[in-house]
Amino acid sequence: MSTEQTERPAETSPAGSWNDRPAPRTPAEWLTRAAEVGAILAADAVERDRAGQTPYTEVQLLKDSGLVTLLGPVEYGGGGQTWETAYRVTREVSKADGSIGQLLGYHYLWSWAVRFLGTPQQIAAVEELATTNRYFFGGAVNPRDDDLVITEDGDTLVFNGRKTFSTGSKVSDLTVLEGVLEGTDQHIFAIVPSAQDGIVFADDWDNIGQRLTESGSVRITNVRISWDDAAGYVNREFRPLVYNTLNLPAIQLVFTNLYLGIAQGALETAAAYTRSTTRPWPYGGDNKESAVDEWYILEAYGDLQSKLWSVEALTDQVGTQLSQILHGDREAVTARQRGEIAVRVAAAKQRAIDVGLEVTSRIFEVTGARATASSVGLDRFWRNLRTHSLHDPVAYKRREVGRYTLLNEIPEPTWYT
């Protein structure tokens, strides 16, 4: 695999010299680092959301701060942390900017693709390359599109096709591809450099939310890899494990933490506005001098915060359980174990969506009419959460939990479960 950096405009991290500071070592220190990154992103989040520019600077911040290497092996300069911490870091960044939180969460998922599928030799090679260079991952694996077509040319595999969504696209250094070998039912994953003539990003992401995720379409033309780089293949044969299918629960929990982070950021931002700007209602018969003493405002914040705390508790519990599986023996994972954690992820995701949409909508009731000004930017939280929460129908997550509860059935692995 080429180690050449993706060509892009030179950027400088707005945080100054991160290299002059010691790297985080503990989960708490990584969360502190994520909060520092979040504070930088929050400072101009409204303006950046409006501008909708390709987030080169923001991704450089993720690199310079070291967050991109959190899961990387220590021997290559990575953080050596677990998925439990990666989920919380994703959530922390999402509080400030849902788009950049999504990019980071997807990066963690795609950087782990080689562990889901690869051989020990492939894992070592990719992790050394990506961690040492602080490479950023994107992915072109939208399963609702036609599969990329893979043809053989001697010892080389050639990918061709188009994907509607490719989150991370122009800001990525490495892209995960997936396709089907022509004339077979063999799915093949590969990790390739993003900067090459055969990968063309269309710049057609124009949605109401998650505007900075670079999630537009991509055209793949004659992208070539060696058979040796086909993830998990040995002598052109793949030996499947249940562990291979854990990428779906893993990314669904990335979604959950993204939604929870957006909702937490919305409530924190609204509370700051209420404290500083919201005026009390003078016609209620129980007039207060300050909005923070209004009973209906206190009641609403109490209700919303309680709901968020409950979702956070469930999400953290599931994150701990899934992390233990992801960092455990790959060959020991059973179908039942995989199915039960998928159900728990489904439960957490649906609660994060429901509560998140309630929070991002009701914050206007407790901030007041003036808070709808574009300059305040409270609408971005709802737009971001609503946009991404339509990724796959939440009703199917409820059904999965229902079938488990009533029939003791675990969900079959699919591209969305």
Automatic annotation (TrEMBL):
Gene3D superfamilies: Acyl-CoA dehydrogenase/oxidase, N-terminal domain, Butyryl-CoA Dehydrogenase, subunit A, domain 2, Butyryl-CoA Dehydrogenase, subunit A, domain 3. GO terms for molecular function: 3-methylbutanoyl-CoA dehydrogenase activity; flavin adenine dinucleotide binding; monooxygenase activity. Transmembrane segments: none annotated. It holds the Pfam family Acyl-CoA_dh_N. Residues 1-27 are annotated as: Disordered. Coiled coil: none annotated. It comes from the Bacteria. Residues 42-123 form the Acyl-CoA dehydrogenase/oxidase N-terminal domain. Residues 1-10 have a biased composition (Basic and acidic residues). One of its GO terms (biological process) is L-leucine catabolic process. SUPFAM superfamilies: Acyl-CoA dehydrogenase C-terminal domain-like, Acyl-CoA dehydrogenase NM domain-like. Residues 254-391 form the Acyl-CoA dehydrogenase C-terminal domain. Keywords: Flavoprotein, Monooxygenase, Oxidoreductase. PANTHER family: ACYL-COA DEHYDROGENASE, ISOVALERYL-COA DEHYDROGENASE, MITOCHONDRIAL-RELATED. This is FMNH2-dependent monooxygenase.
